[in-house]
Amino acid sequence: MAETKSITELEQVLIDDFSLFDTWEEKYEYLIDLGKKLAPLDPSYKTEEYKIKGCQSSVWIHSAYKDGHVYFEGDSDAIIVKGLVSLMIMVLSGHTPKEIVDAPLDFINAIGLSSHLAQTRSNGLRAMIKQMKLDAAAWGS
Amino acid sequence: MTDHIPFDVEQLRELFPILKRKVKGKDLVYFDNAATSQKPQSVVDAISNYYSTYNANIHRGLHTLADEATAAYEESRVAVKQFVGASSHEEIIFTKGTTEGINLVASSWGRANLNPGDEIIISTLEHHSNIVPWQMIAEERGASIKVIPIDDNGILDMDAFKKLLNAKTKIVSIIHVSNALGVINPVEEIISLAHLNGTLVMLDGAQSVVHLDIDVQKLDCDFMVFSGHKIYGPTGVGVMYGKKALLEAMPPYQGGGEMIKEVTFEKTTYNELPFKFEAGTPNIADVIALKTAIDFINKQGKNRMREYEETLLVYATDKLKSIEGLKIIGDVPNKVSVVSFIIDGVHPQDLAILLDNQGIAVRTGHHCAQPLMKRLGIVGTTRASFAPYNTIAEIDILVSALHKALKMLK
Ligand SMILES: Cc1ncc(COP(=O)(O)O)c(C=O)c1O
Questions:
Q1: CA of B129 to the centre of ligand 1 (A)
Q2: CA distance B79 to B305
Q3: How far is the CA of B98 from the centre of ligand 1 (A)?
Q4: β-strand partners of B22
Q5: Angle CA B73–B78–B82, to nearest 5
Q6: CA B146, B148, B150 angle in degrees (round to 5)?
Q7: What is the pTM of this model?
Q8: Which ligand 1 atom sits closest to the C-alpha of B176?
């Protein structure tokens, strides 16, 4: 059951999933697929307020708080980034503010995507992670 | 002249060491030449040779190394003067690039000449570096900015331009060749219309100088700026050309060493041209290597290289157009070797990532021209820009890599 898994355990699941792929093509196809399958973000949150401006693409993250846990939803206008949004939601959504804020999130390196994502684009990823942690911290305070 | 010698791309590639490298296990395909060109070995050597054999501060020293460095630095100025057809070396000011050149003119000329109510004309095609400096000085001086509109292919609306010109128009600062689309602007006509109106013209030559023959006297532009790194030269060096009478009347841009004649605490007199505009120790090594880059261009022959670039452009345009849903923006006859395109339902960033994984460097995004993207109603384009060391085979690689990327994104 996903909700009983810790963030670290969820990261490990993704690392294991990605380790099955031998080529960059398979990794990206998986990411693209995750992007396509990501639950749509309520259009009322696709506004400037929820937008994280990246270098080239935009990301929207909305969070809600229920019974001590933070739930994320999100979107991007670029599909690969949307796949990354999906990964971050899988790992972080449904955890407590403290768990989210403290999460090291090393899995991006471990799944071997960061070497494929050029610097500017990993900056976008960093901005996304920062925003999700800020959201969590706000709910926890 | 080299114009009659057949162009041999393989021979040319040998001069560029970086072209041998692999990216992600594949041969590098470098199609981001409009952002910065690669450097021939001679340019790399010129920099290292300067530092290893005659590094010294220039103009002031009375020793052999200083003499040698000063001579090489000033030879570079003469090479630039000939390269752009200026009438005097005093009209050639070294800057750190196009951006600094525009800021210099906007700031120095603008502060002295713009008054409340005056107007500055730019175009929708501008790079941010030919927008923001003008906004800054316009705000400071109470002047305003007028923008020449374009059509959907990036062609300037010249009728609109004529209507914009009026008694308050003090300067037209315009991109010679669009970095985002490759479209060449009719600058001769712009300059003659502006001059009839008593208006000065500055050309942003960042994208034109490497491709087109430039003769500032024939063009009769009042200022022209460009960057060394886009013409096979080093980063950190650029040129601001200005007509001597204008430069003489302009106040200095920055104060410091080199630009002074005599300093007392009461009053400082300024050095003469071109030193008045080159405060502080300049970028000696890169200025010297800029001459090596110009020598490279002269040796290869600009026209000869441009002819070859044309074949790349025609081939790429044709092949890319055959991709379903792909639309070239700026598909016009009068352009340089740049193909900027969008593909239905595909975000440029996704394309860039998938192409990078196949060893291909293209530029995606707004190309520092956000107002242009807004006018075109798009978030950005994918831009492949070609240099004479690129090959037809590399374009084939790009086309098949695009097909692969599109299949993955489907
Ligand atoms: C048309 C144009 N103007 C200005 C610039 C700015 O040049 P630099 O960054 O070298 O100062 C560029 C470079 O991208 C350009 O293409």
A1: 7
A2: 19
A3: 6
A4: B27
A5: 145
A6: 150
A7: 0.93
A8: 1
Counting ligand 1 atoms within 8 A of each CB, the residue from B32, B98, B175, B181 with the most, and so the one to mutate, is B98
Contact B380/A at CB under 8 A: yes
Amino acid at B77: R
Backbone angles phi, psi at B364, to 5 degrees: -130, 160
User: Is B207:B175 a contact under the CB 8 Å cutoff?
Assistant: yes
The ipTM estimated for the assembled molecules is 0.88
Q: Domain boundaries in chain A?
A: 7-140
pLDDT digits (tens, 9 = 90+) for B103-154: 999 999 999 999 999 999 999 999 999 999 999 999 999 999 999 999 999 9
Q: B127: Cβ below 6 Å to ligand 1?
A: yes
Question: Among B356, B364, B408, whose Cβ lies nearest the Cβ of A29?
Answer: B408
| Cis amide leading into B333 (omega within 30) | no
As its CATH architecture, domain B45-298 has 3-Layer(aba) Sandwich (3.40)
Quote the CA–CA distance of B159 and B162 in Å, as a whole number: 5
For chain B, domain boundaries: 2-39+301-409, 45-298
CB contact under 8 A, A56 and B365: yes
> Which band of pLDDT confidence, cut at 50, 70 and 90, is reported for residue A60?
very high
The secondary structure of chain A in percent helix, strand, coil, rounded to multiples of 5, reads 60, 15, 25
CATH fold group of domain B2-39+301-409: Aspartate Aminotransferase, domain 1 (3.90.1150)
CB atoms closer than 10 angstroms to residue B352: 26
Q: How far does the centroid of ligand 1 lie from the alpha carbon of residue B306, in Å?
A: 20
According to CATH, the topology of domain A7-140 is Sufe protein. Chain: A (3.90.1010)
Integer Cα distance of A111 and A24 in angstroms: 11
C-alpha to C-alpha distance for B44 and B355, rounded to whole angstroms: 28
pLDDT of A1 above 70: no
Across chain B, mean pLDDT equals 96
In sequence order, what are the beta bridge partners of B353? none
> To the nearest whole percent, how much of chain B has pLDDT over 70?
99
Tokens of B137: 């000085």
Q: How many CB atoms lie within 10 A of CB B101?
A: 31
CA-to-CA distance for A113 and A83, rounded, in angstroms? 12
**Residue identifier of the C-alpha nearest atom 12 of ligand 1:** B206
Q: Find out whether the beta carbon of B146 lies less than 6 Å from any atom of ligand 1.
A: no
DSSP state of B109: I
| Catalytic option among B368, B373, B378, B379 | B368
